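Lecture 7 notes: from sequence to structure.

We start with a single chain of 159 residues. Read the sequence below before looking at the structure.
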Amino acid sequence: TGVVLEGCPVPEIIEPSKALLRALGFNGISEIEFKIHETTRVPYLLEINPRHWDQHHLGTACGVNLSLELYRDVTGHPLAGSGDPTPAGPAQTEHPIRWIAEEDLLFHLLPRIVRGQTSIREAFGLLRGPRVFAVWDRMDSGPGRRQMKVIARRLLRVA
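Now the structure, written as tokens:
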């Protein structure tokens, strides 16, 4: 899984993605993952995940609640989109939003900071701007508190 992922609006990828799903006869929730070449802006298809994945909350943060859409589709309720079987369309946000796997990020960055390969300023830079976390949620802090205990135990073992 990724450690820090960014959901960005890429309007030019929407129609080709929908066309690909239609050509496959696919119906349901999916994540179509592309890498976009930085200079040519050519999209390269990496994979299609026809399942719920770790970063599904990133879509909600971008304005498309895929979990709710899946529920609506399965239960026969109208979709929030146009009724198209691929309603998600473009991310509804204009700015990138990050999804952060907080425990993985911490244990990736700590050795790099200790070795001087990453500054604390760079590390905290990853936390700037709009973001959602893999576990921590201020509306439901129980899982985040449990994760903090796991992190504390891991840090004590490492120390």
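The chain has six helices and five strands. Keep this in mind for problem set 3.
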